[in-house]
Amino acid sequence: MTHFTSRQQALQRDADDALAPLRAQFALPDGTIYLDGNSLGVLPRATAARVQQVVAEEWGQGLIGSWNSAGWMELPGRIGDKIARLVGARPGELVAADSTSVNLFKVLSAALKLQREDHPGRSVIVSERSNFPTDLYIAETLAREHGCTLKLVTAPEQIPAALDETTALLMLTHVNYRTGRMHDMAALSAAAHTAGALAVWDLCHSAGAVEVNLHRDGADFAVGCGYKYLNGGPGAPAFAWVHPRHVDRFVQPLSGWIGHAAPFTFVPGYEPAAGISRYLCGTPPVLSLAALECGVDTLLSAEPFGGMAAIRAKSLALTRLFIDLVDARCAGHGLSVVSPREEALRGSQVCLGRDEGGYAIVQALIARGVVGDFRAGDPKDGLPDILRFGVTPLYTRFVDVWDAVEHLVQVLDSGEWRDERFHRRGAVT
């Protein structure tokens, strides 16, 4: 329990917070309590000026020469090395490129190819039914193309028993997008290896939010996005990582020119670059990579204060406060805490379930300046509609959590969420 009984206590906790000065890095709109960094991170103040510099100076004045003079060609690896510091990878092992879906296609293709060559009898990809849909769509397509089967479990506890001599890959998202439940990467990677399978991890909801150590925890492949906790902006490039023991064994299927060993020789035959660079495909998107680097730098600014360990500790304190306040103040309103109460299992978001009006409640909160989001429930998974509230420790304050729950109480007590305008659905929920 947090034992916060007043708003003043939340303010005092913020005053004592070593990470509090890092909030100044972000251009947060006045009057907004932003609890949706698990969907789109806040704009870093440095980003606009950096992108303008790339546009006006490096592109405007340097023109094509900036590929060399401004180091544009090195951006995927340079930013990749920075992201590597956040996820327990080593220099030269990770690249920033493409989207999560495209990178997942690359690494799943590589992993399946390796397994089918080494263990021809293995033909099953194991994942969760509640995994993020794009991961399942990509896996379903590749399973069909490779003559494999996609096997989905309905509960995390069923995963170890689903791994056997037929399993080629275990593909999981580290933190579930809908519930905020976090897997034990080390235990499940070890279970996959014991069964003879490879472990493929999606870090979209964990990179920059929780402590990740890909080497320590036995991952074989990993991907993740740049626009959530890495604050890279809408549609920011994603990233891909491959364990060194696998990286040079396979030519990934999107063998574009940038992944060539010597891209400017322009020869007709493809020869893959050494190491993780072979997982590049097309021309680096310089403007969006420049924005992503600013976002990643906001996370690295926490290193003098304890880095990801300090970020994780604050995240747990914030989510614990949110849960405690909902328990204490929202009883009788039909809300349930869907996110795990056990801290080792909880990512950096609090997800509340409600059988009626979840979308409208979120919209009523947004109208008050409290920005969360909504995800529809799934009766097959036994989940109600979900109200999601993400905490981003670099800019989320304890007083933000206190005030957000106060607004939630008022929305529920007043019934204002029943207003028709809050029930009209937009394209993005």
TrEMBL record:
Is Hydrolase one of the keywords?
yes
Needed cofactors, names only, are:
pyridoxal 5'-phosphate
**Reaction catalysed?**
L-kynurenine + H2O = anthranilate + L-alanine + H(+); 3-hydroxy-L-kynurenine + H2O = 3-hydroxyanthranilate + L-alanine + H(+)
Protein's recorded name: Kynureninase
Q: Which UniProt keywords apply?
A: Hydrolase, Pyridine nucleotide biosynthesis, Pyridoxal phosphate
Keyword Hydrolase, does the record have it?
Answer: yes
Q: Could you give a GO molecular-function term held by this entry? A: kynureninase activity
Tell me the pathway: Amino-acid degradation; L-kynurenine degradation; L-alanine and anthranilate from L-kynurenine: step 1/1; Cofactor biosynthesis; NAD(+) biosynthesis; quinolinate from L-kynurenine: step 2/3
Species of the source = Pseudaquabacterium terrae
